[in-house]
Amino acid sequence: DPSAALRQGMIGLSKNTKVRDVVEKAPVSKDVVKRFVAGTGTADAVSAVRELDGHGKLATLDFLGEDTLDKAQAIHTRDTYLDLLADLADAGLTDGGRVEVSLKLSALGQALPQDGKKISLDFARSICEAAAIAGTTVTLDMEDHTTTDATLESLAELRKDFPTTGAVLQAYLKRTEADCRDLATEGSRVRLCKGAYSEPASVAFQDKGEVDMNYVKCLRVLMEGKGYPMVASHDPRIIEIAGSLADKNLRAADSFEYQMLYGIRPKEQQRLADAGNRMRVYVPYGDEWYGYLVRRMAERPANTMFFLRAVTGK
Ligand code: FDA
């Protein structure tokens, strides 16, 4: 399957630091990045979500970064989230969870050789505390399958004190239907996405059709359950099915939400919001945009061409 090969290759590129350094330094990259990334600093992030809020959309902010093996970097990530939450609260954007934050435990040191899991959990806990003070909450992004158990364990710990902390489950993983059953409980927020990493056939469906089918199966479990489903997809078929599953389960418009990425299908985001749905936009910001962007390219060759043309000036 050529698109699977391209995807694999692109994801490989996302780990290549030489390529990353060249691309990050290409001046034109910055303009292209703007389409998918809200800027580099906290002020950029706050102004992007203020604009979304003005148009009736919810947001979740992601300070870009992942896979750190440097404790100082993990501390910097934690502190950036703490500052961000304070600024969002000052701007009046956090009450009722209108703007929340998404975290990657690997950016908070989950893979540090010494006590990584504990450090990332402690840092995530500080961010959950700051979010609660600001009147909002946190969602833990899900990364590659080697981290799923550790991330779900950290989630369970955080939910003891901060029960609204959200999880992400990935429909490409074979285990996910069972995880959805476990998490489809009262007060539990679950973002269901297809999954963005390159995973082996032993744990993940490789065929797009199978991933889509599993997405629908998992979504059915979440919509029938007692939790709060967050439908993270740009796929028109998935969005339509989510609407009918919500109707079938007599779910009120405020008992689930749609989620899409910043810069992807913005008109559809507005249409869903204008129709009275809860629509949350995932807004990444910061300097470390390379890995994030390459995963978006891998999903959609049209974006890749747009990006490469701009980088090469052709
Ligand atoms: P897919 O990529 O299969 O596209 C399906 C269809 O959607 C396309 O055929 C097209 O019709 C439409 N479409 C897609 N992109 C488009 C574009 N640029 N323009 C126009 N139409 C487009 N992953 C992960 O592993 N861990 C995580 O924590 C998260 N978090 C997360 C949060 C949120 C809010 C979102 C939306 C996504 C994630 N993801 C994620 C990423 C996710 O796993 C997945 O890689 C992408 O959302 C792409 O999958 P889609 O469901 O959008 O469909």
TrEMBL record:
Substrate binds at K104, R295, R296. Binds 1 FAD per subunit. Keywords: FAD, Flavoprotein, Nucleotide-binding, Oxidoreductase, Proline metabolism. Signal peptide: none annotated. GO terms for molecular function: nucleotide binding; proline dehydrogenase activity. Residues 47-306 form the Proline dehydrogenase domain. Pathway: Amino-acid degradation; L-proline degradation into L-glutamate; L-glutamate from L-proline: step 1/2. It catalyses: L-proline + a quinone = (S)-1-pyrroline-5-carboxylate + a quinol + H(+). It comes from the Bacteria. GO terms for biological process: L-proline catabolic process to L-glutamate. FAD binds at M142, Q170, K194, G195, A196, K208, S233, H234. The keyword Chloroplast does not apply. SUPFAM superfamilies: FAD-linked oxidoreductase (SSF51730). It holds the Pfam family Pro_dh. The keyword Cell membrane does not apply. Its EC number is 1.5.5.2. It is an enzyme of class 1 (oxidoreductase). Its cofactor is FAD. This is proline dehydrogenase. It comes from Calidifontibacter indicus.
